[in-house]
Design a protein that fits this description.
Elements: H1 9-20, H2 24-37, E1 42-48, E2 54-59, H3 66-71, H4 99-105, E3 108-114, E4 121-127, E5 130-137, E6 142-148, H5 155-159, H6 164-181, E7 186-191, E8 194-199, H7 204-212, E9 220-226, E10 230-237, E11 249-253, E12 256-258, H8 261-270, E13 283-289, E14 294-295, E15 306-307, H9 310-327, H10 340-345, H11 357-360, H12 364-371, H13 389-394, H14 410-413, E16 432-434, E17 438-443, E18 446-451, H15 452-470, E19 475-485, H16 488-496, H17 498-504, E20 507-511, E21 515-522, H18 530-547, H19 552-565, H20 574-585, E22 600-604, H21 605-614
Parallel strand pairs: 1-7, 11-13
Antiparallel strand pairs: 1-2, 2-6, 3-4, 3-6, 4-5, 7-8, 9-10, 10-13, 11-12, 14-15, 16-17, 17-18, 18-22, 19-21, 20-21
Helix pairs in contact: 1-4, 2-6, 6-16, 8-9, 15-17, 15-19, 15-20, 18-19
Length: 618
């Protein structure tokens, strides 16, 4: 017997829905883009239970005829293209003709629509791809889509949906992308009958401020470039507004949101030297290009594209951003007085240093020190082929890399390198700090390097995880309360994490629809701005959600540890260094951060000897 057969339309639609409709936010994206294609000037989004119960999009677009009302729910039915040539001249948001069929396959859908020339509108009802009815009704100009009980007939898919705050965050992310791509369109958003956004038609700068808050008003620098191949228009944030977490970066190609690590690299390259390492600039940029030079028919989500000349777009984009930075004087000037090396040399006289045995032997450094008894007057020779001499003079009189810790080595036990870290340190460690970032100490097999910030991240992560499990985080009350204004999706996350945030040591109360009053902060933050710390914590938590699968406790502990660890990049005395190393080796995994970054590395004696001999020795 023959075993190959055609699938029914119902099953085929459910399979297609697996790519198109992944969560409630996918429905919001498709319906908003359809409203834009319908030439709507006002769009209203109504959501209940984060889209699980209801998603409704109302627009004042051109509407549909009686025949189109039924046809639009068929697979591969579209008004956007008709020939294969049209695929290379796409200017609309949608064109595949899969979205409405996929949505109708996994939800209960009711659509009401009316054209300007029609006296009556049309109402169509479909449940799980099954047609329920069509009748004439009184309806305003435009179209209203109601998507109820998403995944009602696919319980396995519904089970894998996240919590309401997480799903609402994804919905608002999709809304913000459409709202920023089309500032000429007015938008309203309601969740459980609460107004979240009411955005009038405006220019892009005002739309950015309306979406992200008034704090962005002074942070925007216009970026504009026009060439025969491509035109770029939008705004970049000033360097001081750069954040440690990603999320406020928006690329649009012909007003369509895309994701491109390649183009993001062009922008970060333009900002090189103006923002600290690990920070990300804010930008909202639209790239206008002839559709024939772009292929967007790669994935149903249409967020991935290909250019026929990516290098040209990369160069033009980087140049445009650099020009914006230069025009607005955003590039920092070089101030030699503030350079740390010059500052150290031109301040108070350096302490006298007793010559070591190495210096007495007539080494270059020993001779150098004997010649530079007056560093303030003769600072220029310091940089004649010996860049590190100044730092050497500031160091301790006798630098010893010996350690009293009892480490096990590879040569002794034939174990992996991590066996050297099997026991916590119990005595004071004779270690050296370099560049306020790294610790160096001697072990039996060679030299041990420790990343100071990474070590703190591991220590703090385990401390915060324990505090969250035991709900025992220490808090200090603020003398003056602080107000923190959050984006709607961040406020929803804060409410979902309220108990966990309190367990970390933050104290806050709800103030208004999307604001918090901060009245307590964790004790380890000291005098740091509590509102800023909590905002960064929520931002890092959001970023972890998009790239990692973690429970609340681990995500929060990891986010707060990463947020707080940067404060450890400072000069430490020997007591603090010993405490840090002892605490590190008391953790469950002292060799790696929670994110998998290496904390320490052993350089064997053989490798050190090879490095020295490879440079010609002394």
């Amino acid at each position: 017997m023959d075993i190959i057969h055609l699938l029914s339309d119902n099953i085929a639609n459910q399979i297609a829905a697996g790519e198109v409709v992944q969560r409630p936010a996918s429905v919001v994206k498709e319906l908003l883009e359809n409203a834009i294609d319908a030439k709507a000037s006002e769009i209203k989004l109504i959501v209940k239970d984060s889209g699980k119960t209801l998603i409704q999009v109302i627009d004042n677009g051109i509407g549909m005829s009686v025949t189109d009302c039924r046809m639009c729910f068929e697979r591969h039915a579209t008004s956007k293209i008709s020939t294969s040539d049209d695929l290379f001249a796409i200017k609309t948001m949608g064109f595949r003709g899969e979205a409405l069929a996929s949505i109708a396959a996994v939800a209960q859908v009711e659509m009401r629509t009316r054209r300007a020339d029609d006296e009556l509108g049309t109402c169509v009802q479909i449940e799980g791809s099954e047609f329920k009815g069509q009748e004439p009704v009184s309806a305003p100009l435009g179209t209203s889509f109601m998507v109820k009980n998403l995944f009602f007939n696919v319980p396995a898919r519904r089970k894998f949906l996240k919590s309401n705050p997480v799903e609402m965050k994804h919905i608002l992310d999709e809304f913000q992308r459409v709202a920023l791509a089309h500032p000429e369109v007015g938008f309203e958003v309601y969740h459980n009958d609460v107004e979240l956004y009411k955005l009038p038609s405006a220019k892009l700068a005002k739309r950015i401020v309306d979406v992200f808050g008034k704090n962005y008003r002074q942070q925007l620098a216009a970026c504009e470039e026009s060439t025969p191949y491509v035109s770029i228009k939008g705004y970049v944030g000033k360097p001081e507004s750069a954040k440690k977490t990603r999320g406020d970066q928006y690329f649009f190609i012909n007003h369509r949101f895309i994701k491109s690590g390649y183009l993001h690299h062009a922008i970060t390259g333009a900002f090189e030297g103006t923002i600290p390492d690990g920070h990300h600039p804010f930008y909202v940029l639209n790239i206008e290009i002839d559709p024939k030079h772009v292929d967007i028919n790669i994935h149903p989500q249409k967020t991935e594209i290909k250019f026929d000349d990516e290098k040209a777009v990369y160069s033009i984009l980087r140049s445009a951003v650099r020009q914006a930075i230069g025009v607005y004087n955003l590039t920092p000037s070089i101030d030699f007085e503030s350079d740390i090396n010059f500052g150290n040399l031109t301040s108070t006289p350096l302490p006298e240093k007793k010559p070591s045995a190495f210096e007495k032997s007539g080494s270059a450094i020993g001779n150098f020190e004997r010649k530079t008894s007056s560093p303030k007057a003769d600072w220029k020779p310091l940089y004649e082929g010996l860049e590190s001499a100044a730092n050497y003079q500031k160091s301790e009189p006798q630098i010893s890399l010996s350690s009293r810790a009892n480490f096990k080595t590879e040569t002794e036990e034939d174990q992996p390198a991590t066996s050297e870290f099997s026991k916590p340190l119990e005595e004071e460690v004779d270690a050296v700090q370099i560049h306020q970032k790294y610790l160096v100490l001697q072990v039996k097999s060679g030299m041990l390097l420790i990343d100071q910030k990474a070590a703190w991240e591991r220590i703090l992560f385990e401390q915060y995880e324990k505090n969250l499990q035991n709900k025992s985080g220490a808090s200090q009350q603020l003398l003056f309360q602080k107000t923190l204004n959050l984006k709607p999706e961040e406020f929803a996350l804060a409410m979902d994490l309220k108990d966990e945030i309190h367990a970390l040591g933050f104290g806050f109360e709800v103030f208004g629809s999307t604001s918090l009053i901060i009245n307590g902060i964790p004790t380890e933050l000291g005098d740091e701005e509590g509102a800023k710390a909590l905002e960064d914590l929520i931002s890092q938590y959001k970023e972890n959600q998009t790239s990692l699968t973690l429970d609340k406790t681990q995500n929060l502990a990891r986010a707060f540890a990463k947020r707080t660890a940067h404060r450890s990049v400072r000069t430490m005395d020997k007591r603090e260094i010993s405490s840090l190393i002892n605490r590190l080796f008391e953790t469950s995994m002292p060799t790696y951060t929670p994110g998998g970054q290496k904390i320490m590395k052993i350089i064997p004696l053989e490798e050190i000897a090879e490095l020295i001999s490879g440079t010609g020795g002394f």
